[in-house]
Amino acid sequence: MAPPKKIIALSRNGDDQYEICLFRREGKNKWHLINVLVHNAPQSSIKAKEKMKELSEKLQIPWQKKALQDVTRKRLLKAEKRKIKREIQQQSQLIARAKKPALLTFDGTSKGRPGVSAAAGVIEMPDFTRHTATKFIASATASEAEYIGLIIGLEKAKELGISNLEIRGDNQMVIYQVSGKYRIKSETKHLEYYEQVLNLLSFFDNYSLSWIPRQKNQLAHRAARKCLQLNSPLDNCLVDNSKSSAIEYVDYLISGGYDWYKNSW
Fold first, then answer.
1. For the chain, which domains are there?
2. Is the pTM higher than 0.90?
């Protein structure tokens, strides 16, 4: 005799309470709940059996004593537990992030030395909101674009009323010049940008500067490239002008570091 496709049985609703439900067979020993016939089943097993027998005769569907677990409900309960777990994790991340300062990453890209360029600064707030500032530059070198990216990022942070700021960039020359590790030649254009940066930094109570590799600066890098692409519609593709540390060091020597380097020997 073939097993029934539908059956009436008890099912636990998760609160130490049973329901009388109508199930549909889906594969071997897999039952899916079709409908809840009685939400609060009688506490007495005898009365529950009598009620199921009554429903079985009325609906012409067999019933069984053994309670069944709805496969669909089981999946939903697991999904709900996973959702609650994710919410708890997100809440803990928000609490941990709220204790950290806002993060500013900046970048600049150029199609020449000098050439059309673009700069970007991206601010990630403790609550995970993000603010982006970009600027198209008609003519600049890559290092100048990097400085401008830092400047517009600091201006945006000042506008947002941020007091504690963590600054990260992938251009060693800019980071080390601003932090005082590299000297700047007085007649270079970098000095003008350097003074603007120092002026803006004076508005913050606390700030830190650190260098990061290119692959960890993708938000600002993509924002700068997108700005350049939108303002250079005739160019279908952009050449990646990201510099290695060796090229950045050569730029540093050209911009005024050579005299210091030569005198140190």
1. 1-72 (no CATH), 102-263 (3.30.420.10)
2. no
